[in-house]
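ok so I'm stuck.
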Amino acid sequence: MRTPRSLILGLAGAALTATVVTAASHAPDPAPAIKARQAQMQLYAFNLGTLGAMAQEKMPYDAAMASTAANNLAALAKLDQSMMWPAGSDADSAEGSRALPEIWANFEDVAAKGQAMRDAADAMAAAAGTDLASLQDEVRRSREGRESRSYRSARSLYQMQLAALRRLVEYEDVGSK
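replied:
not stuck anymore, here's the structure
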């Protein structure tokens, strides 16, 4: 029995259309992106906790440990995060997210804040392994620079992007959290 060619082509076209419509109706799950950026923030907190504890003299200064923690921060700050911030992964749209919706409305400003964070992390990496005074001076310079550029108000708007830098410059001991 021969199947008419037009019937086969019609069925194939219908299957293709159904696949396209189904794929278009299912947006990607934002959960993996949210988990990835939260994991990055945990790594920031871990390394900042070490530097903060040393800067506050809550733990003995160790040049190798300080250098490692600061270099880790610099490497983390340089990660390409573009896949971690898909549309629909803000706190209003996705469970488990703390990212404010304003991030997507002001992404250019967020990128500028990210560059400031990378610059601060690079400066910290250059100073942290030198000695305790250099670490403390860099933390102080970072805090003074933030205050002069009004980072305190930006922090509330871009909490996920800047939480790690806030912890560093305010000497919070996040290592035990």
